[in-house]
Design a protein that fits this description.
two-stranded antiparallel ribbon
Length: 256
Amino acid sequence: ERRKEGAALEESLARELERSFREGRIYVSGEEHELDGNRDLKTALQDAGKTLVGNLHTRFLDADKRYDFRNLTRILNPAEKKLHEVEADLDLFDSQRMLQRERPLLATVLEVLKDHEDENKPTDGASVLAFFSQIPFGWPSEIVRLTLAAALRGGAIYLELPSAQGMRQLFDYTESGTTDLFTKVNTFKGVIFRIAQTGLSVEELKAAAKLLVRLGVTDVPEAGNVIAARVREVGTRLLEAVDRARTYAGFGLPLP
């Protein structure tokens, strides 16, 4: 009999607690919300939370888009030609596979990187994620990583990576292992992101790529930072060839 009384008391107490939470008023960010008992507490708090997020995270809407983080591999796949169809809601690329730098996500990320560089603030992955996770942004880590991957492919940024010989620069998004730098969050946090200096048009990028092909460089992506890196590589090889030619000429030997 006592067990029945205890169970009934427990059930009654649970009902009263639920009723007390579903009726009355809650105050969020200075605003009053009436609880009329028709909604459960979770729904009421979610509705109130939308007001709180809107008031504090005023830049959240820029990143409040549908996305699939698995598409990061498509963004960094040189065989992917329909970039404007990859994460279309994020407006990363246009139909000519050019980076849409003026769109809210990309424009904001690139502006923040430039400002941090100008102010000598850290631009490593951990610092960038921390910055965009705070007010007024509240952006998901995956959105930031997708955007930066697109910026690398589009030639707007390059990376600095730790190596046994010190920091090295990465311009070419097709380099083996680049995708892991973005998909593995702990690895991403150790990467440093730099703004690339480029202002070439689509036609100029295509012309530069064709000239490199004539010099024997194949599979050149039409991205400014990659083209710049390939030009430096070709220049180094040409200088080495000139030095060898001088050496042969100094000994009176025919050029090979």
